[in-house]
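Quick review question:
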């Protein structure tokens, strides 16, 4: 009787095992699909353009691209800490050089398809056009207690560009006490939009998408290094899918979107 019962239960055990296997496969499927997506770490100033480009890629291929936007400095540190990404787009060469130096990104894939310009903005209701040169009186421009918003001047690319430009114009020591360093260019833009800063130094493309600010001056090109955006594939992520996304991000359709948002296309 015991042996007969064992035989009776064997099919049930096999069915249970099969059901468990199917369940595991079903649970694994979303994970596999998630891993198949390419994640792009990109400078905050590229948010709107890349979101549009991601939609184009989805329309053409049916595949999603996942974007993570922040200051290039923060993204480079995240890569160093092991955060998963397939592509890194920096708002300056410094942080791409950093990831290369840490053997995190593939130097052989590096391209620089776009650039930007450095501008001075004000809230639209207080804006007044000015000319930036070595004789420009920043303290008079900002007023008695006005603040100048930009990125953190020791790490965030827009802040580094701003400090370099002000230093080259002989103005940094005069104005540094008024500077408010934000965690990204979009955070600096928001301070000016809300009227919490009298003015801000951002990229022209960020000013272009803001509703309540106005560009009042463009910094002289020789006051700072060219604003460039290098792209690289992350080490050990050089898969066909990642390469396809990378090629699209630097291709003609993407460049048309960059141009629409005011980036300088190379």
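Suggested answer, residue by residue:
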């Amino acid at each position: 009787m015991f042996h007969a019962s064992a035989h009776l239960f064997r099919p049930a055990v096999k069915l249970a095992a099969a059901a468990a296997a199917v369940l595991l496969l079903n649970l694994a499927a979303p994970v596999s699909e998630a891993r198949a997506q390419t994640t792009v770490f990109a400078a905050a100033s590229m948010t709107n353009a890349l979101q549009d480009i991601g939609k184009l890629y989805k329309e053409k291929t049916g595949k999603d691209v996942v974007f993570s936007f922040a200051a290039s400095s923060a993204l480079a540190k995240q890569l160093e800490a092991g955060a998963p990404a397939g592509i890194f787009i920096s708002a300056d060469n410094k942080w791409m050089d950093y990831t290369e130096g840490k053997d995190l990104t593939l130097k052989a894939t590096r391209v620089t398809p776009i650039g930007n310009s450095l501008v001075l903005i004000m809230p639209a209701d207080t804006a007044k056009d000015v000319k930036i040169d070595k004789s420009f009186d920043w303290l008079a421009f900002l007023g008695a207690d006005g603040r100048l918003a930009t990125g953190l001047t020791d790490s965030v690319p827009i802040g580094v560009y701003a400090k370099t430009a002000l230093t080259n114009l002989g103005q940094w020591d005069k104005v540094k006490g008024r500077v408010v360093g934000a965690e990204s260019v979009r955070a600096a833009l928001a301070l000016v939009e809300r009227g919490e800063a009298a003015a801000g130094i951002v990229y022209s493309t960020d000013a272009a998408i803001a509703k309540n600010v106005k560009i009042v001056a463009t910094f002289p090109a020789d006051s700072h290094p060219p604003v460039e955006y290098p792209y690289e594939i992350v080490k050990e992520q050089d898969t066909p899918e990642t390469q396809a996304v990378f090629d699209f991000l630097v291709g003609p359709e993407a460049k048309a979107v960059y141009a629409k948002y005011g980036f300088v296309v190379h």
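Why it works: Residues 1-35 have pLDDT under 50 and may be disordered. The radius of gyration is 25 Å.
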